[in-house]
Design goal:
The chain is α/β, with parallel strands linked by helices and 237 residues long. The chain has a single domain, classed as Rossmann fold (3-Layer(aba) Sandwich), CATH 3.40.50. A 7-stranded parallel β-sheet has the order 3-2-1-4-5-6-7, sandwiched between helices.
Length: 237
């Protein structure tokens, strides 16, 4: 087992999902103590790390609710003595052309992808600052935020906001040694995506394990220089 994260506290939003499970696994393997806010009132059956002694789940946390996000990060900081990194995987997806996209749908994806990421970044920084040792934030943008893609106006706009926020925060927080980066995946090889696109060449999609490795590298204390990056993680797609 690598001990890169030995004893370090990391929050992973969306940590019980397909990508989140892979990220949790590599972090635990590296010695981290992983805290996961879960929107649902029970742990998904597919999540294999619920009983791990260094994985702590808190149910019923709505990352779109400012007060709940404030309380969640404060409770993590109190219980663990601080925070090293926060990795923000939670979000949503939808496709529609411009004329089929309602303002309500734009606002829904904005809240799910950008507002939740903003709140988690802000409160994570508050918890990281309490240690005085710097830390790491890792966000998730998306390929459509970097490469024009038709039929995804609400999704692409919300994820472009995540990319812009990542760059801005990286500059603001650099003097404190808090590195902020993001990955921008294409279609991720998950069971849900395979079911939705059964005829696609799934071998071209980046795997959750491969993406988890990249996220771990960005969140690692070994990362001493990369900040402000929005890393394209497209695999062969």
């Amino acid at each position: 087992m690598s001990s890169t994260f030995e004893g370090r506290v990391v929050v992973v939003t969306g940590g019980t999902g397909a990508l989140g499970s892979a990220v949790t696994e590599v972090l635990v393997d590296a010695g981290a103590i992983v805290h996961i806010p879960v929107f649902e009132t029970r742990t998904p059956d597919h999540f294999a790390h619920a009983e791990h002694e260094r994985v702590h789940l808190q149910h019923g946390v709505d990352l779109g609710d400012e007060a709940q996000v404030v309380d969640y990060y404060a409770s993590v900081a109190r219980s663990s003595g601080g925070l090293w990194a926060s990795i923000h995987l939670a979000g949503g997806f939808a496709m529609a052309s411009l004329l089929d996209t309602t303002l309500a749908e734009l606002e829904r994806l904005w809240r799910m992808n950008l507002a939740s990421c903003f709140l988690c970044c802000r409160e994570a920084v508050r918890a990281i600052r309490s240690t005085g040792e710097g830390g790491r934030l890792v966000n998730v943008a998306a390929r459509p935020a970097l490469i024009p893609t038709a039929g995804m106006i609400a999704y692409a706009t919300s994820k472009a906001g995540v990319a812009a926020m990542t760059s801005a925060l990286a500059e603001e927080l650099a003097p404190e040694g808090i590195w902020v980066n993001a990955i921008a995946p294409s279609i991720i090889d998950t069971p849900a995506n395979r079911a939705a696109m059964p005829n696609a060449d799934h071998s071209r999609w980046p795997s959750t394990a491969a993406l988890a490795t990249e996220i771990r590298a960005l969140a690692s204390p070994d990362n001493q220089c990369v900040r402000g990056a929005v890393v394209p993680v497209f695999g062969r797609s």
